Protein: Porphobilinogen deaminase
Organism: Allokutzneria oryzae
Amino acid sequence: MKPRLRIGTRGSALALAQTGLIASALERAGAEIEIVTVSTPGDRSSAPIAEIGVGVFTSALRDALAANEIDVAVHSYKDLPTAPDPRLVLAAVPSREDPRDALCARDDLTLGELPPGSTVGTGSPRRAAQLEALGLGLTVLPLRGNVDTRLGKVTSGELDAVVLARAGLARLGRLDAITETLDPLQMLPAPAQGALAVECRIDDVDVEHLIRSTLDDEASRAAVTAERALLARLEAGCSAPVGALADVVEDLDDEGRTVLRLSLRGVAGTQHNGLLRASAIGNTTAAEQLGRAVAEELLDLGAAVLSGPGE
Ligand SMILES: NCc1[nH]cc(CCC(=O)O)c1CC(=O)O
């Protein structure tokens, strides 16, 4: 018999686009799919995310999944709280989109071309801390709303630029709005940016197996596992001024053979110690240890007190 799966999603254009990708892959694997839209407090409120709380976009979906109202939940991985949900299992991390941030500026300008005093909108303390550290004299202003609303502030002339995740723009077919894809040396993305998390109930082993075998991408999972372990060790949530990016790189082992390893870079904005950076390389099979090790290095440098709550 064909498995029937109810996939839960937020109702935003971005969430629906992401869920559509997952639904088609599962349909190709022989499942019959129903898409169920779940409204979340994050969608209903326009207050700064810091004031609404952890998991504003994801808790309602998780509750619907645990309550058997849906069988699968699709999240933007970076929006998930770091604390695991004991009712659920992360069945798949699909192949990740480009994780970098993107500048969408007026008149086709790049970061370096924006004159001092230019206004750049972002609701993310991570992006704000890294933008300010560039020393370009940019004025960072708070920003919320869906991708269209954010881009609209540049077209209307209200802001000179906004910074958004490239992945979101790609999934919405809006890569045309990007005037510069930011180098991770200047702007490390949020841990797990560009990745999706596909969850099911912990005891739903057949569904877990179907989702894992259809959608899971080993390299993407290793990378985001390292990035999220870093975030968790810093006891920081998706709204902390913390960036992390892991890349799978080729390395040589003791016998000179090529092996795949994981390279992890991290950045933390602090109230008194400025922007701190650390990095390390480890085995792809020890992603969590690598994340914790880079976090320890950041803590040693003085990241213990992270500045402000917020994304
Ligand atoms: N915090 C909102 C959010 N959550 C996921 C994405 C899209 C990119 C992704 O999948 O990481 C965005 C928008 C953005 O940061 O521009």
Notes: Residues 287-303 form the longest helix (17 residues). Confidence is low (pLDDT under 50) at residues 307-311.
